[in-house]
Design brief:
Blueprint lengths: L1 E7 L6 H13 L4 E6 L14 H12 L5 E4 L11 H11 L4 E7 H5 L7 H7 L2 E4 L17 E3 L9 H9 L10 H10 L4
Parallel strand pairs: 1-2, 1-4, 2-3, 4-5, 5-6
Length: 192
């Protein structure tokens, strides 16, 4: 089984994430997509994050009606701050019959060469890249690399940051969130 790993804080998960994950699983050779909820991204301020299990709960609620898309808390028990290479090694040991690939936005591909052991990741894993809004097309040292597959997924301009800010301002963001996630956010009074 080939599994695409979609890493993120998902703070909150929104319809843009689901559209991309569903597109990847329907229009590439991936059999499943796992949303890997990251406990702490070394490049982000942790104070704005909801609790790990609250974010996992939102991902669970968002994906429960999709047979090919799953939530994953695999990084919750790995040493922090964690690096993608460590997660990949751990997953390969835990699921030796699975093949794991990364899903990332083209903006992340631009800085991929700064990732810990990026050469090893590229040697052993495919990378599926989806388009992101940017001023110009992103040219990288990875153009044309046999392990990097650019997937013509829909361009999504929704961000979790925008949603959190809009909720804080009392705006209605319900159309941007899966219904089950909206209900949970509303019930828990998150981001207000």
């Amino acid at each position: 089984m080939k599994v695409g790993l979609f890493f993120g804080s998902f703070n909150p998960i929104h319809i843009g994430h689901l559209v991309i994950a569903n597109h990847m699983v329907e229009y590439s050779d991936l059999d499943q997509v796992w949303f890997v909820v990251t406990p702490h991204n070394p490049f982000k301020n942790k104070s704005s994050l909801l609790d790990n299990y609250q974010r996992l709960e939102m991902v669970y609620r968002a994906t429960k009606d999709y047979t090919k898309i799953k939530p994953s808390d695999i990084e919750f028990n790995l040493p922090q701050p964690n690096y993608t290479i460590n997660t990949l090694v751990y997953l390969q040991e835990k699921y030796p019959k699975h093949e794991f690939a990364l899903i990332m936005g083209e903006d992340n591909l631009k800085s991929f060469h700064k990732w810990k052991n990026y050469e090893l990741i590229l040697e052993n894993h495919d990378i599926y890249v989806y388009p992101r809004v940017s001023e110009q097309s992103i040219e990288t040292q990875f153009d044309g690399h046999k392990k990097i597959h650019v997937i013509n997924a829909p361009l999504m301009e929704i961000s979790s940051t925008f949603i959190r800010q809009a909720i804080k301002e009392g705006k209605n963001v319900q159309p941007m969130l899966p219904q089950h996630v909206w209900e949970y956010l509303d019930e828990m009074n998150f981001y207000k």
